[in-house]
C-alpha cells in the first residue's frame, strides 16, 4: 500500500492506496495509454466487491467499453477541482 503523500505516477503505473471507500488509483499526469492499462490491470486483479476510485485528468472515454466487457461500471463522483474522479464497481 502506498500512502496518499506519494507522487502520482510513481513507477509508471499510477499511485495506489486503500481507503474506507475502496482502492484508489491516481493516474493523473501519465501519458496515454498508461492510465487505461493501469486501471484495467487493477480491476482485473480484484476478485470481490471492492470498489476502485480513479483519479484522472480527463474523462476516460475509452475506459467505459473496456470496463463493461469486464463486468464493471463507472460513476462520476466529487473530486478536487480540475480532477475527474470515478467510482468503479463490479456490475451485478
Description:
The chain has two helices and five strands, in the order ββαβαββ. By secondary structure, the chain is an alpha+beta fold. Mean pLDDT is 89; it is low at 1-11. It has helices spanning 34-45, 63-70; strands at 15-19, 22-26, 52-56, 72-77, 84-90. The chain is 22% helix and 30% strand. α1 (34-45) runs parallel beside α2 (63-70). The protein has a five-stranded mixed sheet with strand order 1-2-3-5-4. The protein has one domain (10-90): Translation Initiation Factor IF3, CATH 3.30.110.40.
Domain count, please report it.
Answer: 1
**Contiguous helical run count:** 2
Find the structural class using helix and strand composition: alpha+beta
User: Can you name the CATH architecture?
Assistant: 2-Layer Sandwich
Average pLDDT score:
89
Strand order of the largest sheet: 1-2-3-5-4
Which shape, going by the Cα principal axes? globular
Question: Unreliable runs, pLDDT <50, ≥5 residues?
Answer: 1-11
Please, what is the CATH homologous superfamily?
TusA-like domain
Helix-residue proportion: 10-25%
Backbone CA Rg: 12 Å
For the record, the CATH class is: Alpha Beta
Element layout with pairings:
Elements: E1 15-19, E2 22-26, H1 34-45, E3 52-56, H2 63-70, E4 72-77, E5 84-90
Parallel strand pairs: 2-3
Antiparallel strand pairs: 1-2, 3-5, 4-5
Primary descriptors:
globular; Translation Initiation Factor IF3; disordered N terminus; alpha+beta; 92 residues; five-stranded mixed beta sheet
Amino acid at each position: 500500500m502506498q500512502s496518499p503523500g506519494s507522487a502520482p505516477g510513481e513507477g509508471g503505473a499510477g499511485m495506489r492506496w486503500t481507503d474506507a471507500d475502496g482502492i484508489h488509483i491516481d493516474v493523473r499526469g501519465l501519458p496515454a495509454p498508461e492510465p487505461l492499462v493501469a486501471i484495467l490491470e487493477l480491476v482485473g486483479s480484484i476478485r470481490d466487491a471492492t470498489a476502485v476510485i480513479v483519479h484522472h485528468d480527463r474523462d476516460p472515454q475509452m475506459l467505459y467499453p473496456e470496463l463493461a466487457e469486464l463486468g464493471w461500471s463507472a460513476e462520476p463522483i466529487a473530486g478536487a477541482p480540475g480532477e475527474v474522479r470515478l467510482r468503479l464497481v463490479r456490475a451485478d
